[in-house]
Amino acid sequence: MNQFARLAIEAGPLAAFFVANSQAGIMTGTAVFMVAITIALAVSWRLERRIPIMPVVGAGFVLLFGGLTLWLQDDLFIKIKPTLVNLLFAIVLFVAHMTRRNVMKRLLGTVLSLSDDGWRTLGIRWAWFFLLLAVLNEVVWRNFATDMWVNFKVFGIMPLTLLFSAFQAPLIMRHQLPEEPAESGPAA
């Protein structure tokens, strides 16, 4: 699947959430988000015959906390979902770093080929970034109106994540392992 299709599948549910919230409020936005993320997982499965772990975890949290939001008619649950997801990712990466496990390599090893030091550095950077996102989400939902929080979720978290990812390019290039040459056939 090309990167534009992957971005559409990952960002589509968030865009649907934003539009539905702006038209009909947070409860409708949450319901639309839940349906859209389920469709996105199905499309991802259909196109690739696999679903990466991060979208599955994210979808699980959306369905759980979205369901609680709708069932209890309390938007607190959908608002704390990004905090909890980002804390979970940060904790996993911090624990992996302390126990010298290479979680980032397991998640991204099919896409990137880095030295062990590169994977460790990338992992700890992402751990701190996820922790920052959790704190930012808490600050925004606790201090601003729901519509402002939705705007932050759509136009803050995604661009910050893309920007942070782009800033990792020098680290990735510095620690990228050279590709091994393809084996040639038997000599004639």
TrEMBL record:
Keyword Transmembrane helix attached: yes
Organism: Azospirillum palustre
Keyword Transmembrane helix among record annotations: yes
Location(s), subcellular: Cell inner membrane
Source species, domain of life: Bacteria
GO cellular component, as recorded: plasma membrane
HAMAP family, A to Z: YciB
Protein name in UniProt: Inner membrane-spanning protein YciB
Similarity annotation: Belongs to the YciB family.
Membrane topology: Multi-pass membrane protein
Function description: Plays a role in cell envelope biogenesis, maintenance of cell envelope integrity and membrane homeostasis.
Keyword entries, A-Z: Cell inner membrane, Cell membrane, Membrane, Transmembrane, Transmembrane helix
InterPro entries named among the record's database cross-references: YciB
Transmembrane region(s): 24-45, 52-72, 78-97, 118-136, 148-167
Pfam families to which the protein is assigned, alphabetical: IspA
